[in-house]
């Protein structure tokens, strides 16, 4: 008598809950693999810094910056993914290029020397605009700050001059942001890249309070990879944001022998190695500068209106004067005819090759910031479009920005140590004559073109 054949189900299917769980697991894994490797719209940042540093670069006290949280991001894909080279190949190419090439950026620009009441010289509008056409006046001296001494120690100044490759700089005043260590660094990067953080006395006291730096060292202090440089901001501008603009845009003067630079706002944490960023976003794109475009605005006037509406700058009448000055002297709204995808950047990260065009752009932009206000997105397109020689610019998608950096909130509470030295001014209301129907404005033509009505 034969044995009757029977079919048996897999053991896990005898339990309905276990069966559903296994199916859910495999479905989830499939979706993750699809979005990571197959989906054509996913922002794939393929880079492999061989043997990246896995351990934390610096261990903070638990109380330091505990209330500063990362801002959430919602973009899961992008239209222009960036593919990074192998770390060691990028490192070799960048080092060879820096050693074997002669950069003529600073040498081809001559800077006006002298003394003045302000750090930038406080030039008139007409005088500032006269330096935009540098090709016609090649060799002429350009105003570029330093009409007052930059108040740092001689020891720091010598160290900055000895930085000859890539420099990463940031600044935080009034203890406004936590100093965060970059992530994803290759093994040689901490020894090959200069990292400088400019701070004021308030921030320095906060670092000392949390036992992050020595209270006795008078020459060199470091927090992880960051070298801390104290700036006596009382000798510069009353506004801390304007003091931060100095290292942000005059980096080529503070580090005259550096070939490339990366500026990051203090609220930003890099998560991709600086060699890979410069190599992929600047060198491989053959540009002078790389910067993220703004996530919402493309027209300068949109940013100006948002600056007034959200009280990002207290003097609204001053904002009106600035925009009307630019409109009267050639500022045009963004259009597809411009060789750039936007007129408004997100300047939290700026990657630069220290070329003639980049250094000139930085000088001209700094002069506008001193002339009007430290909101650097407002004069950006005006200087970029009207200067000569032209700036080769890579304005990458905001999704790229969100993949190479993490943005954190500013200080949300006072810990009893860091108190602002300058109280914010009360917002000045705009005069009623601005942009009112029936009232002529120098920006009428700009607005009509922006709104598509001309």
From TrEMBL:
Coiled coil: none annotated. The chain crosses the membrane at residues 12-34. It comes from the Eukaryota. Keywords: Membrane, Transmembrane, Transmembrane helix. The keyword Nucleotide-binding does not apply. Residues 114-410 form the TOD1/MUCI70 glycosyltransferase-like domain. InterPro entries: TOD1_MUCI70, TOD1_MUCI70_glycTrfase_dom. PANTHER family: ALKALINE CERAMIDASE TOD1, ALKALINE CERAMIDASE-RELATED. This is TOD1/MUCI70 glycosyltransferase-like domain-containing protein.
């Amino acid at each position: 008598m034969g044995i009757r054949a029977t079919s048996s189900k897999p053991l896990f299917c005898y339990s309905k809950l276990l069966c559903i769980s296994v199916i859910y697991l495999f479905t989830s894994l499939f979706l993750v693999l699809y979005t990571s490797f197959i989906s054509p719209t996913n922002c794939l940042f393929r880079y492999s810094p061989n043997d990246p540093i896995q351990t934390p670069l610096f261990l903070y006290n638990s109380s330091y910056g505990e209330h500063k949280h990362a801002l959430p991001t919602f973009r899961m894909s992008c239209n222009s993914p960036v593919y990074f080279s192998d770390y060691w190949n990028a490192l070799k190419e960048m080092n060879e290029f820096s050693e074997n090439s002669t950069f003529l950026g600073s040498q081809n620009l001559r800077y006006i020397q002298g003394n003045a009441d302000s750090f930038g010289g406080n030039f008139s509008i007409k005088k500032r605009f006269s330096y935009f056409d540098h090709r016609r006046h090649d060799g002429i001296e350009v105003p570029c700050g330093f009409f007052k001494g930059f108040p740092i120690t001689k020891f720091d100044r010598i160290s900055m001059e000895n930085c000859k490759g890539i420099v990463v700089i940031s600044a935080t005043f009034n203890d406004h942001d936590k100093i965060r260590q970059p992530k994803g660094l290759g093994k040689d990067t901490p020894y090959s890249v200069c990292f400088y953080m400019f701070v004021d006395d308030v921030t320095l006291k906060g670092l000392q309070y949390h036992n992050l730096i020595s209270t006795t060292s008078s020459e060199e202090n470091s927090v992880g990879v960051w070298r801390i440089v104290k700036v006596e901001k009382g000798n510069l501008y009353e506004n801390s944001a304007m003091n931060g603009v100095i290292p942000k845009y005059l980096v080529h003067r503070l580090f005259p022998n550096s070939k490339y630079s990366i500026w990051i706002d203090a609220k930003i944490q890099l998560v991709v190695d600086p060699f890979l960023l410069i190599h992929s976003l600047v060198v491989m794109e053959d540009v002078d500068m790389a910067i993220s475009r703004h996530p919402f605005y493309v027209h300068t006037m949109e940013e100006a209106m948002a600056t007034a509406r959200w009280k990002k700058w207290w003097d609204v009448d001053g904002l009106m004067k600035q925009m009307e000055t630019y409109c009267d002297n050639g500022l045009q709204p963004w259009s597809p005819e411009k060789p750039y995808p936007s007129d408004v950047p997100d300047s939290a990260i700026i990657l630069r090759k220290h070329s003639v065009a980049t250094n000139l752009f930085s000088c001209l932009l700094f002069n506008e910031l001193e002339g009007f206000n430290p909101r650097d997105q407002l004069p950006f397109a005006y200087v970029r479009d009207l200067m000569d020689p032209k700036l080769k610019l890579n304005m990458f998608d905001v999704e790229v920005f969100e993949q190479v950096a993490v943005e954190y909130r500013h200080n949300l509470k006072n810990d009893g140590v860091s108190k602002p030295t300058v109280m914010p001014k009360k917002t000045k209301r705009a005069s009623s004559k601005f942009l009112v129907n029936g009232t002529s404005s120098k920006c009428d033509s700009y607005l009509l073109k922006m709104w598509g009505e001309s």
